[in-house]
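I need you to check the entry underneath: sequence plus fold tokens. Let me know what the token row says about the fold.

>
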Amino acid sequence: MAYTSLYRRYRPDAFDSVIGQDHIVRTLKNQLASGNIGHAYIFTGTRGTGKTSVAKIFARAVNCLHPVDGSPCGECECCKELSRPNNFDIIEMDAASNNSVDDIRSLIDKIGFAPTVGKYKVYIIDEVHMLSTAAFNALLKTLEEPPAYAIFILATTEIHKIPATILSRCLRFDFRLVPTKLIAERIRFIFDDIGVKYQNEAVALIASSGAGSVRDALSLADMCVSYCNFDVTYDGVLEVLGASDPQKLRSLAEHIGDGDADGAIREIASLCDLGKNVSLLASDLAALFRNVLYIKHCGDDAKSILALPDDVYAGLKELADKYEVPRCLGIMKIFSSLEGELRYSSQRRILFEAAAIKACYGDESSKANELAARVSRLEKTVMALRKSGFNQAPAIMDAKQVWIHIASRLNQMGYSLLTSALRDVKMELTDSEFVICVPDAATKKLIDVATNAEAIRAAAANTPEAMGRAVIFKEELQVAKDVALPYVQDKFGPYVDIK
């Protein structure tokens, strides 16, 4: 006997078996209980979320003689007849391969025949967005006024392609992505039922890889069962997914986070030599820093949310303690946006290496954000000290450190160009003054703008390390030496008057 895949073998046959779509199940049950059954429905949502399964359950439920809590009983004569694939009262049509106007006309011609077993004849049209314009037009009139015994259920993954004239004639139900937790529970139930040993971390990884699709997750679970020979482990699932070794991936992430471009390139070369796909590497790195952000913000709850092995979680916890939020966000953004570029490139490794180097050095916005975050934490520390009665200002080593904090304030105030222009200017610090030495005419012109000078003083006044010190602009203008003058004097002597 041919093997039946898990997603087919464990397809829901009652409403209680449908997971993640409680809002739809409840509505349909209430309609069945009250008898207010519509003549046309449209089910929309991502693949593998239960559209066709719910349509089949509903088709049998409306004809069941003894429904159990809204679901078909499976025991009555109607349920037994309608469970057969060749019954005449539940007609399934794949619009992807039957999308012409002739196909719809053929369906309409047969709609005049009354049900053979139950009370209703149910037409399930899958991938309905694939119908041609002529086919949609042919369906319109029948969809609006079908016979009393006919019910249409249209299913689609691309609701935006459905004509408004069709949508207005249907009751719309939006199927949501199924939460990872519910998918994991379903996989554990199935593994227990078929006698598969498993690690909880492995099941969590399978469930998250399904990305909200139960069918995708069960298809992956099927492969993992075969690959791991009925003993599904975390490492086995990683092999099936083609994902990177968590320790090697963490090592690469740390090189990037530390700004070690040389180490990052060497690690990438090592991973690529093992045959790792750079597109998958980029996705894995983005997911890693996303997990790091979870740990930074969710505290102890992150461990149960992420469901990672202890050693993997411990490694990510070290990264979370080491890097600031802006740094993690910047790296995650670089690698998550890389997917689109890699898709259409023939030089994927080069693009990936370039992205890794860019992430090592970071961009100006992420650096400014990180600096602002550090200053914010320092300010909170100073305020806490003052509230506790400790009014002595923290020790400052030199004027350059004070300027870094003032520059961060200026960036927040929108004066990033001013801070860049004054980056290499000489600074001096005394007990009562913060002195900015003006070395050239261009800098003097910039400082002479009243709004710029006032902005620097305002930033200093709001920087704890500079509070109480007056901001002074000191001119040390240097006249550039004319190297051509001695040469001219030597050649022409007293015969030329140089002014």
Notes: Confidence is low (pLDDT under 50) at residues 392-396. The two ends are 106 Å apart (CA to CA).
